[in-house]
Prior knowledge:
Oligomer: single chain
Helix content: 25-40%
CATH topology: Rossmann fold
CATH class: Alpha Beta
Distance between the termini: 23 Å
CATH architecture: 3-Layer(aba) Sandwich
Shape: globular
Number of strands: 8
Number of domains: 1
Amino acid sequence: xxVNLKTLTQNEDLLSGGHRACAGCTxxxxxxxxxxxxxxxTVVGGATGCMEVVTTIFPYTAWRTSFIHSAFExxxxxxxxxxxxxxxxxxxxxxxxxxxKMNFIAFGGDGGTYDIGIQxxxxxMERGHNMLYVCYDNEAYMNTGIQRSSATPLGAHTxxxxxxxxxxxxxxxxxxxxxxxxxxxxxxVAQTTPYHxxxxxxxxxKALAVDGPAFINILMPCTVGWHFDTAIGMDIAREAVETNxxxxxxxxxxxxxxxxxxxxxxxxxxxxxKQGRFKHLFKPGNEHLLERSQQHIDSEWSKLLKLxxxxxx
Length: 313
């Protein structure tokens, strides 16, 4: 599939201006890029979270397509129900306007996906609904006070895993939700970022084209929770890929493909230095946490390379 930027920019923008996202928010970019690719024949579900709150503060909405707000834990269940209703109405000829295909997309942050919503997400994927679930992963519960989630990386400072005299941020590595989704044996799973627009749009096209469930995990640098200047969100997303912190890859019917292999990989410390949530790691005595972070990233990258080699034969 070839995605053309000129064609995308000529599509109708289905997320209006005037929403209340923070200055420098990369999440609104994610939503716009996905909807420019998906088009108007799309039903969107939004779990409680940053992107739901800033786009649908009653009585206003930024969405120019059908939108359903779901609770934190059940967005995947809601959209799977809508997809089932569509199939039933179509089968019985009861659709008011006959359509051969509709897109069904559920959006959730890492709190509503990795943690609170994983049960309903797992169920929807296992049942095989023809839907796309998109996680915009900003690595904490940003909407409610920057609490740690299972997507928060090792050493990051959050309000519930603070850096101080006793502890130095989160003590665990982040959960690998993307590979958990691969384990559901669904047709399509991918990772991307808003900086890599062509990669993102191509993966959305692929995900919406498959017959069955698809999952895309998108890194969403957060200027508020990660503590970086509002102008550099896209650079933070780009460098996350160049350090192998957030590899660009896809898994089609169990076959892994890495979409970008950095020619000169950046050390993770260079990326962390630009984010206030990691500033304590550069104080004397915390060198072991930087080393542990680099070792974890190197180990995960090696695993990914082996999975690509093994599944491609």
